[in-house]
Amino acid sequence: MPTHPEATRLNLEYYRKQAKALLKAAKSGDSAALQQISHPKLHDAQRAIAREQGFPSWPRFRAFIIQSGLNYQSLVAAFIDAAVSDLRRAEEMLSAHPKIAGAGFYAALVLGNWKRVVEALKQTPALATGPSGPQNCVPLLYVCFSRFANGRSSRAGDLAETARVLLRCGADPNAAFNSLSCLYAATGLNNNSGLAQALLEAGANPNDSESLYHSTEHPDLACMKLLLRQGATPAGKNALRHILDREDLDGARILLTAGADPNEPNDRGETSLHWAVWRGRSAPTIAALLDGGAAPDAQRKDGRTAYALAVQSGQTEVAALLKARGANTDLSPVDRFLGACATANPKELDRLLATHPDIAASPGADRLLPDLTASHRTAAVRALLAAGLPVDARGDLGGTALHWACWKGYADIVEILLAHGASLTIEDQQFHGTPPGWYGHGVHNCNEPGGDYVQVARLLIAAGATIPTVDLPTGQPELDAVLREHGLI
Questions:
Q1: Does 84 lie in the same domain as 26?
Q2: How far apart are CA 389 and CA 384, in angstroms?
Q3: Are 44 and 186 part of one and the same domain?
Q4: CB-based contacts of 128: which residues, under 8 Å, 6+ apart?
Q5: I need a labelling partner for 242 at 20 to 30 A (CA). Which of 3, 25, 297, 407 fits?
Q6: 346 pLDDT tier (thresholds 50, 70, 90)
């Protein structure tokens, strides 16, 4: 009898041969085969075989075969690893192997089977507080970091109750994994206010370094409000700038009322007002910051004010508001030039691009290209490239303009950058990801309203980029159709 690895290899080989046989039949004109695959290519044949077995794609089917080749103990460990890192993978494993749900204490922790946890703790009380299990961490971490604890999950309430069981048995509410606390997992990662409430009632520190910051990422703001009620203070948390990464006027006002300092600078000397303008926030949000005490004439380390950022990026309404509120309207020649480019008609823009000032010599020039890309200022990007700025200059997080355009799905800028020779393989300095890697992450996590991820996929593929397949298919029909056409799923 073959070993598990050998059986897995044989199963994969069997289905690969089926796919090749189907492809051969289709190429020979077999009508039944042609009904199964629309194009006589190997990836289409593999997908057809996968669908016959009930899977949407060949990579999913292949992963199932590999998982099925594990012994039961290893399969449960793989499920628990997925449960605390990748909900989609965990759900697929649970659907394919439903018996995992009853596989003991650690499966009960990540699934919120609190009754089973109670029984286990009656038999072994010390389990509640000591590190153990596949991840060698305390049980409360399995619960709080479980992706099944997401506030939208049907298991969210049961996982909150599981946490209460552990807390009553002495679990530490401030337990952390790699400096990320249980409270961060409840609020920032899972947006589960019931779970967060249980932790706070048991003594979790609302002023850790991550929870308030990441709680701003959820539009309902339930966990952010809970943290503030329980004593979280915005000072030093960067929460106000983070909520300005999207348009959320109410959220910004709540943080300002709670004591967030709009003039607290980051390492570039940017205040929240600078940040809001860079992120393209609305005039009402800018007005709220000013009403909350934001200094209109605060300067970044490169000397730029919020007014200068508004002008250079073509935000005429915001620039007019700042001027009306008393902002200094002095501009450098570079910012004046970029502002003219941002508002020019196509004919006028061509004339301006031919008469650009010496942008490379201006303060902060090295970051202009990625910064203006991140805020989708296409005319300014063209102007900067025409002026000779390096296409792979680095900005926030050490990402290039192409990193940011891929993350946000700005197809027009991606096309311009690729035409100017932007690197597809350069890594950012924070996460060590390539532009295509940022694209793959952005498809699932950015949700930029102005993004065209389908067209970006076409551009990247045409340029020879390697698009990560780890999160494919995406679940977005039009995008998946493009990826499938090119054999990526």
A1: no
A2: 6
A3: no
A4: 121, 139, 166, 169, 170, 171
A5: 297
A6: confident
Same domain, 141 and 100: yes
Instruction: Name, in order, each residue with C-beta under 8 angstroms of 1's C-beta and a sequence gap of 6 or more.
Output: none
Pick the last residue of a domain from 232, 253, 277. Answer: 232
Token readout for 459 is 């551009």
Q: What is the pLDDT of residues 123-160, one digit of tens each?
A: 999 999 999 999 999 999 999 999 999 999 999 999 99
Instruction: Choose the final residue of a domain: 199, 232, 265.
Output: 232
Q: What are phi and psi of 118, to 5 degrees?
A: -60, -45
The gap between the terminal CA atoms of the chain, to the nearest Å, is: 33
Q: Report the alpha-carbon distance of residue 52 to residue 37 in Å, rounded.
A: 12
Q: Residue 5 pLDDT > 70, yes or no?
A: no
- For 203-238, write each residue's pLDDT tens digit: 999 999 899 999 999 999 999 999 999 999 999 999
61 and 174 both lie in a single domain: no
The residue written with tokens 């006589």 in the block is: 40
Q: What is the DSSP letter of 47?
A: H
Smallest Cα–Cα separation from 81: which of 113, 61, 117, 107? 107
Q: What confidence tens digit (pLDDT) does each residue in 233-250 have? A: 999 999 999 999 999 999
Residue 466 belongs to some domain of the structure: yes
